[in-house]
Design a protein that fits this description.
By secondary structure, the chain is an alpha+beta fold. The protein contains 7 helices and 5 strands, in the order αααααβαββαββ. It folds into 2 domains: 120 residues, no CATH class; 84 residues, 2-Layer Sandwich (Alpha-Beta Plaits), CATH 3.30.70.240. The chain has a 5-stranded antiparallel sheet.
Length: 226
Amino acid sequence: MNNFLRLPMTEVTYTTVFIILTVTTFLGALLSLTLAYVRRREGYDRSFVVTLLLLPLIISIIIMLVSDNIARAFSLAGVFTLVRFRTTISDTKDITFVFSTVAIGLATGMGYIGYAFVITAFIIALLLIIHVLKLDEIKDNHAKLKIVVPESLNYVGAFDDALSSFCTYSKLKKVKTTDFGTTFELTYLINLKPGVNQKLFIDDLRVINGNLNIILTQEYLERTLD
C-alpha cells in the first residue's frame, strides 16, 4: 500500500506540496469536465463546476496542514461546525460530485497519489456508465398533484372522473386549509397514463376548482398555474 505512488508525509516539503496541489487540481478538473459532459444537454451551474475544481484542492491543503497535529484537527472541525451552506442543491446527484471531491482531496492530502487516480477514474467511469445507460432518467409518470379548492366546494369525489381519465392511479394523501380557512389544499399522489396531455388534464381540473392554483410536480418537472 505504501509503495503505490505514496508520497512521504512525515516531513512535508515544497516539492511534496507542489506535487499534491498539481495532482489534486488535475483530478478536480477531470471531475468538473465529467459533470459538464453529462449535463451538456440539460445545462449546469458554471459556478458549481468551478467549485468541483477547487474543493478537492482546498481539502487536500487542509489535510496536509492538520495531519500531524490532532489538536489542530479538532479545532478545525469545530470551525467547520460553525459554517452553514445556504446554497440549495437543485439536483440530488450533485451531492455525489461533492463527496467525490472530498474523497479525492483526502487521498491526495494524505499522500496517496496513486489511489487518488484510481478513485477518480472509478468514479468517473461509473458516472459515465450511468449517463450512457440513462439510469438516472425518469422512467415512470409518478407525480404529486396539489389542487386548491374554495371552501364552498365539496372536494370529496369532486375530481374522481378527471383523475380516472388521465391517471392509472390516484390517492388523496393530505388536506389542509389555506388563506385563513377560505380554501383547501388537496395533495394527491398520482401516476399519469403514458402519453397523457398534461395541459388537458390541468384544464379539466381548473374547471372544477374554479381556476385556483394547481401544481403538478413530476421529479424535475413542475407545472404551476395560478
